[in-house]
Amino acid sequence: MIIAFCLYKYFPYGGLQRDFMRIAQTVAARGHRVLVLTQQWQGERPEDFEIIIVPVKDRTNHGKNASYYQWVNRYLEQNPVDRVVGFNKMPGLDVYYAADVCYAEKVDREKGFFYKLTSRYRHYATFERATFLKGSGTELLMLTANQVADFKKHYNTEDSRFHILPPGIYPDRKYSYQIADSRRVYRERNNISEQQLLLLQVGSDFKRKGVERSLRALSTLPEVLRQRVLFLVVGQDKPARYEKLACQLGIADRVRFFSGRDDIAQLMAAADLLLHPAYQEAAGIVLLEAIVAGLPVLVTEVCGYAHYVNSARCGEVLPEPFQQESLNKMLRKALESEALRKEWASNARYYADTEDLYSLAEKAADIILDCKHG
């Protein structure tokens, strides 16, 4: 079969993009032709993918997305395929992979009346409605039950269309795949001493992922403890605002920013703690990558995958509404207690060995190949 995968942008370090890559590769490995329609592609191009860069011209993101949809719709009318799979919401999908939160719910919670008069709102609301409205027929690949509840609330979507997937961690992210003595080796490779406390935050969109919260928590540590900390922030975003904040907080020498790195698994093996105090996160694949790496986690309850941290007993989940003081105290507690971090790390490894955290791509491919087209 010919399977068309639609996503606005591909870059190697996004959670949605990594899930897309695994699912598309799984479909290709089963002998099907993978056609990718995207506005941008960054990084290596798999040889078994046919990648088409869709030309779009507009000043706004929602304008570009509307133009993208119109072009794709015309292309697929002239070049029929067997399945259309979307990783962004749009009309006409056979399958939608829901890596994002419910837009209607987000608007109700965060925006005022006048926002609903904007062209941006009309675009995203229309595309979401076309995907989830009762009777639309699109099969919905979901990451958490919380997502399902929000979409049903706004669109009365049929239960039968929702498919909650297990997580999908690359097996090579697991601690048991690392080289012997990996912590020491990777610390030496990155000029990090054994006495330093390595904090890690991974994720694009620094504002949404709560990088500011992490910086403020770091700045409250006692001076002796703070001088031992090195905080690495990895993600595709513009760091200037956060570098300025780090200077204002007096911690610029403790923080390093990276737009993207290919050695995240190695950094997790070397790190002491993952921070993820996000404002909003439909799932948070990085949380599970930390768990299977044996890396303790501090995370906000709002993240869809935060419950795995509780289940694994490998860190702390900060309740909503978020309190900066709670994060400050928990960070200090975790950094001052090596015994606590070792207990969390041991619990994480046990959970990685005993739970299914790996089969998302296989289950998603099953649904894509079995569903009806059109």
- CATH class membership of the largest domain: Alpha Beta
Strand order across the biggest sheet? Answer: 5-3-1-6-7-8-9
Relative helix content: 40-55%
Indicate the CATH topology of the largest domain: Rossmann fold
What portion of the residues fall into strands of 2 or more residues?
Answer: 15-25%
Low-confidence stretches: none
The total count of strands amounts to 15
- Give the overall silhouette: globular
Distance between the termini: 14 Å
CATH architecture assignment name of the largest domain? 3-Layer(aba) Sandwich
What's the story with the biggest beta sheet? Answer: 7 strands, parallel
Description of the molecule:
This protein is α/β, with parallel strands linked by helices. The chain contains 16 helices and 15 strands. The strands form 3 sheets. A 7-stranded parallel sheet has the order 5-3-1-6-7-8-9, with helices on both faces. A 6-stranded parallel sheet has the order 12-11-10-13-14-15, sandwiched between helices. The protein has a two-stranded parallel ribbon with strand order 2-4. Strand 13 (273-276), helix 12 (285-293) and strand 14 form a beta-alpha-beta unit. Helix 8 packs across helix 14 (324-336). The two termini are 14 Å apart.
Short description:
By secondary structure, the chain is α/β, with parallel strands linked by helices. Helix content is 44%, strand content 17%. The chain folds into two domains: 2-166 and 359-370, 3-Layer(aba) Sandwich (Rossmann fold), CATH 3.40.50; 171-354, 3-Layer(aba) Sandwich (Rossmann fold).
